Amino acid sequence: MARKKEKELIHKPDMLTQAFESVSWYIRENSKQCLYGLAALLVIVAAVVSYILYMNYQAEKIQYQLAQGITAWESYEQTRTAGDIDKAQGIFQGIATGASGKPRYISKLYLANINMARGKTDEALKLYQEVSKDSSNKTLIYLADNAIKSVEKSK
Q1: Is residue 141 part of a domain?
Q2: What's the domain count of the chain?
Q3: What are the CA-CA distances from residue 36 to residues 26, 27, 31, 43 (Å)?
Q4: pLDDT tens readout for residues 50-96
């Protein structure tokens, strides 16, 4: 009896083979629709890959601008030339208005520092409070909170 069941199992078609045969039959019967579906899938994949590449390019561009702004700010701290602080402010202002996420709040922190260097403590305090309230990064919140405490002590 066990031998008979073994023979039936051996002669029974495999599940993978059955699936392959049914898919092959469907493709043969509906080849035009399958080609349209494949073309649509390729267009969607190409669009997703293009979007991901574009977003990576934008992120790298923002990181480069952020590095330029930080370099200009550090140069100002060493030389105290007005051109350096103006350059840093322009770069950080562009990032703060055009970017999102962490780079945006980093640039706002630097803008607040620039305002403090120029004696505009009220504007700096507003930027520090905005970073403290809106940012989700704990380090940026910590830095903004410490700066707020420092500004309030000096008033």
Answers
A1: yes
A2: 1
A3: 14, 12, 9, 11
A4: 999 999 999 999 999 999 999 999 999 999 988 999 999 999 999 99
